[in-house]
Amino acid sequence: MLSILSLFHLSQVVNPAEKLWALITFLRSHAEEKIVVFFATCAAVDYFTRLLQGGLLSSNHAKLIHGLHRKMRQKRSSIFAKFRNLSKGVLLCTDVMARGIDVPNVNWVIQWDPPSSANFFVHRCGRTARCGAQGRAVLFLTPTELAYVDFLQINQNVTLVERTLTELVDAQTLTQFTTDSIRLKVQKICTNDRLLYEKGIKAFVSFVQFYRKHDCSLLFKIRDLDLGALANAYGLLRLPHMPELNGIPNFSFIAPDVDLSKLKYKEKSVAKQRELKRKALEENPPPKFKKSSPWSKTKEKKAKRASRRLKHRINEEPKAAAFVPGNHMPRKRQAVVGHGACDEEDDDDISEEYKKMRKHKGRKITTAELQEMEDSD
C-alpha cells in the first residue's frame, strides 16, 4: 500500500558525465539504508552491477549489491528473496521490479534512467513508502530533460521538488571522489577485464537505442544529449560504431591510451568460451551481406530502371498493336472487296499470337518461353 503523504518526490539535475559519480556518492552516503536503483535496460543493470561489485565500493558494501532484470530467469527468484530479507543493501533493476512486487523497508528509489513512460514513473516510486512508512524517490535528469518535470505534473499530477546532491549526501562523502577519478577507475577496471569492456559497450548502445525510441521523444531528444559525456560516465574505452552517433559531435569523450587488442578476460571460463566461439566463426563464417548503397545512388538506379521500362513499353506497343484482331479487315468485307476471305483457323491463330504477346508484355512468360511456344507452333 502506497502512502502518498509519506512519499517525497525529488529530482536532481546532473550532467551526463556526472551520473555515475553522483550515484556512487549517494550510495556511499546511504550505505546503511535499503535502496532500489532503476535502469532502462538489462544490459545496463548487468554492467553497473559488476562495476559496483568489482571495486567502485568498499568490499563490505559491494557484498550488498545485487542486480535483477527480466533475462535472469533462473537466478531472479533467489536474488529477489535475498534482497527482500536484507535490512540494508542496493538492488539495481529494470522495470521488472516496478509493479506487482512488495519489498519492505525500502528507504530510497533512485531512477538513474528516465522511465519508458510516465505510468512507470509512478510504479517505480511505489517501491518505497509502503504500509505507511516514509520513503523518498529521486529522479536523475540532465539539463536538457528538465521539461519532463512539468510533463509529470500535468500527466500524472506528481510534483517533483528539485534537490542538489549536496542536500542529499553528507559533506565528507561529497568530496571523497571526483568525476574524473571515477571515470579513470572504471576504465582501469575495464582494461583488466575484457568482459566488462564488452558489457560497457553493450550497455551504452542499449541505452542510446532506448532513448531514441522513448515514448516522450519530444522531451528526450537524442540530438540534445551529450553522448560523449555520457560515454565518459559509462567509463568506455572507445565509442561504439552505431548510426545514432553519425553526425553527432563527441568532442567531450575522453578515450584512454589503451591497446584494445591486448585486453584479456579475467575469468578463464569466459576466455575459453570466447575462444571456442571465435574458432567456430572461422570454420563457418557467416554470410557476407551486401552493404546498402547511399540513398542518392538508390534513387538514381530507380530512375534509370524506370526510364528503361518506359523505352521498352514504347517499343513494344506498336508490335503488340499489329496482332490486335480488330486491326485486320473483317471476313465479310474482305470477301466483298475481293481480297479473299479469312477462315476461322487464321482468325484463331491471330488471337493466339496476340495472347502470347500480351503475356510476354505483362512478364507472365519470359522471352525464352515465348520463343519456345512459337517454335512448337
TrEMBL record:
It catalyses: ATP + H2O = ADP + phosphate + H(+). Residues 276-377 are annotated as: Disordered. This is ATP-dependent RNA helicase. SUPFAM superfamilies: P-loop containing nucleoside triphosphate hydrolases. It is an enzyme of class 3 (hydrolase). InterPro entries: Helicase_C-like, P-loop_NTPase, SPB4-like_CTE. The keyword ATP-binding applies. RNA helicase. Residues 299-312 have a biased composition (Basic residues). Residues 19-169 form the Helicase C-terminal domain. Belongs to the DEAD box helicase family. The lineage of its organism: Eukaryota, Metazoa, Spiralia, Lophotrochozoa, Platyhelminthes. GO terms for molecular function: ATP binding; hydrolase activity; RNA binding; RNA helicase activity.
